[in-house]
Amino acid sequence: MFIIYLLLSFLYAQSYVDFYSNNLQVQLHPEENYYFLEDIHDALLPLVQEGKVDAFDIGKTVENRPIWAFEVHKKGFPIKKRILVFAALHAMEWISTESAMELLLRLSEHPIEGVSFVVIPVVNIDRRLLVEKELREGHRKYRRHNSNNVDLNRDFEINREATAIWRYIFPYRYATSPAPLSQPESRSLDQLVQNIPFDFIVSLHSFGGYIYYPWAGKYRRAQDYHKLHDIGIVMKQGMSTTHPYQVKQLSHWCFLFRIHGSEIDHFYGKYNIPSFLIELTHTGFLWYKPSTWKDDFRMYNPINPQKHSQIGADALFALGIYAKKLDE
Description:
By secondary structure, this protein is an alpha/beta fold. It has one domain (2-325): Aminopeptidase. It is built from ten helices and eight strands. A hairpin with a 5-residue loop joins strand 1 (54-60) and strand 2 (66-72). It is globular, with a radius of gyration of 19 Å. The relative contact order is 0.16.
């Protein structure tokens, strides 16, 4: 199955180049420090053409748009470890995409020997395009769900059932999607993990400044939580900042807090893959800039994302170095 998947990925790389070579149109936009979707492909298309990065389609969105993944590894060396990184399950959390792009561009110039990264800069493409349209029109409403109005962060299979008494007090916080893997975006991610034997998985979000590990949907510790915590510390120590993120079990962020049907519980609980959720930045809200106080986009995305995207990419690159050393 994996060999077939690689052959298909080669064909998809050709279709990616053919499509975007002829249809790419880059336009001015109101968030000049951030990638819009056309900027993403404008940056990645030359790398795919040069063979530094491979592109493949992992599936389609609700509105039948391809979800593009990009793979990079050091050519000429056997792949011993594989890491999946995906961003933007939530449509307005753009700093996650910025960090994924920072990682991809860095790896294209400095791939890690023996380690393959598969990076998906945007999963929730349909609603990302709606956010782009609204930003151009001057609207800055927070968008979280996909086109079926489902929160993809609550659409996975493991730990869906709320058991804490708080589910009666905060029912919205403890809600899940209509059924496990009910959406094409989450099914595409699940199928990708079935097809490729990943060793680590990281989902990027904002905001908070945390590196989370399972469990998210129940308070008790995972059986090997010490290992998960230690891997989180590896990513924390790789961050180029005087205030690196905290490492914590997600459900231990607050005694009242749970995420049921989360991606990290799914990939860890179903496939036994160490999985992490990084909440990038500590918010784009600035107390001395009143314009940010009621700006939903700014709440989740700093004015200048470069420092924050670099911190996230540092953590992910450190995970790659850690993976490489496991086989030395």
